């Protein structure tokens, strides 16, 4: 990896934020919300393996960090939609790049894992 400048050092604050954005569900939620607003159950259907509790926790954490917005829709019954915020929208290119990289490199990583597992049995 390249050298980091003073402004690019990984501080505890950076680590905490990156942990929260790159966790198991956040990337998927952000990817789903880029370009569209979704209600809670629509998100659950779009990410079928996430539990209700995990999705609730993820949405609250992303909202707290300013990545998404929770919008109350003035209909009866009152509904809530989640949408990407301006800050969160700046992540779309990075998310796409991570997904592209992982798709491109997955075969190499699987081979490396197989070699490691064979050697360390």
From TrEMBL:
InterPro entries documented for this protein: HTH_HxlR, WH-like_DNA-bd_sf, WH_DNA-bd_sf
Keyword Zinc-finger included in the entry's annotation: no
Keyword RNA-binding attached: no
Source organism, top-level taxon: Bacteria
PROSITE patterns given in the database record: HTH_HXLR
Pfam families, sorted: HxlR
SUPFAM superfamilies reported in the protein's UniProt record: Winged helix' DNA-binding domain
Domain HTH hxlR-type: 11-110
Swiss-Prot/TrEMBL keywords: DNA-binding, Transcription, Transcription regulation
Protein name from the UniProt record: Helix-turn-helix domain-containing protein
Organism: Glycomyces luteolus
């Amino acid at each position: 990896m390249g050298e980091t400048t003073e402004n690019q050092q990984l501080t505890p604050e950076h680590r905490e934020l990156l942990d929260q954005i790159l966790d198991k569900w956040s990337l998927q939620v952000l990817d789903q919300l880029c370009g569209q607003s979704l209600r809670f159950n629509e998100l659950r259907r779009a990410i079928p393996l996430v539990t209700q509790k995990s999705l609730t926790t993820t949405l609250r954490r992303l909202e707290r960090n300013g990545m998404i917005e929770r919008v109350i829709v003035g209909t009866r019954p009152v509904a809530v939609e989640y949408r990407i915020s301006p800050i969160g929208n700046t992540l779309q290119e990075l998310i796409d790049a991570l997904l592209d990289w992982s798709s491109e490199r997955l075969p190499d990583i699987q081979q490396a894992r197989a070699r490691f597992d064979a050697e360390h049995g």
